[in-house]
Design goal:
rod-shaped; Immunoglobulin-like
Length: 186
């Protein structure tokens, strides 16, 4: 019951609603376009969804837009990788210089030790070259592809000499032995 309309005891007795249910079977109750009352409308009538309006089954432009939607991204399936590494995930992927110039091995030797150095001879190295090295998930004669992660092996560039080359120094968390693959680029 509405306080402003004493004596209204049913929905149809209110002033801003249809006066009868006759012919309204299966219809939907909506606010009228002037926002001053309520109307009964047939189901499937016109509606609005943000910038799209009208009858949903007539939205061929919506279906076309949905059909053009990008497929789910899956690394190494419909997304390329960089040097075998997925480009999915958080963070910043820094790509500079050229593509990988080469792959070499750092050799920790036959007994356990914590450091290894390998020299890369390349006359193309210049005073403004900034070589970058990355441990590479590649099996060697001594190790499986992921052993460098388990051993905590990392590498960095040192002793850059223009027109000659540079050294790649590698270290590990404790000690390790054998050869590990390293890529380099600049």
């Amino acid at each position: 019951m509405n306080i402003d309309q004493p004596g209204a005891y049913s929905f149809t007795q209110l002033l801003d609603v249809p006066k009868t249910y006759f012919g309204a079977g299966g219809r939907i109750l909506t606010v009228n376009p002037f926002e001053t009352g309520i109307d009964f409308n047939p189901p499937g009538g016109s509606a609005s969804w943000g910038g799209i309006s009208g009858v949903l089954s007539n939205q061929t432009d919506l279906q076309t837009a949905l059909d053009a939607k990008q497929a789910t991204l899956v690394s190494s399936t419909n997304i390329k990788t960089i040097n075998g590494a997925s480009v999915l995930g958080a963070g910043n992927l820094i790509v500079g210089g050229s593509l990988t110039k080469g792959i070499t091995e750092v050799d920790f030797g036959p007994t356990e030790q914590g450091e290894a150095v390998v020299s890369v001879v390349d006359a193309a190295i210049t005073a403004t070259s900034y070589p970058v090295v990355t441990m590479y998930a590649l099996a060697t004669a001594d190790h499986d592809p992921d052993d460098y992660m388990a051993e905590g092996v990392t590498a960095y560039v040192t002793n850059v000499v223009a027109g000659v080359g540079f050294d790649i120094a590698a270290g590990c968390n404790d000690t390790t032995w054998g050869k590990y693959a390293v890529t380099f680029a600049y």
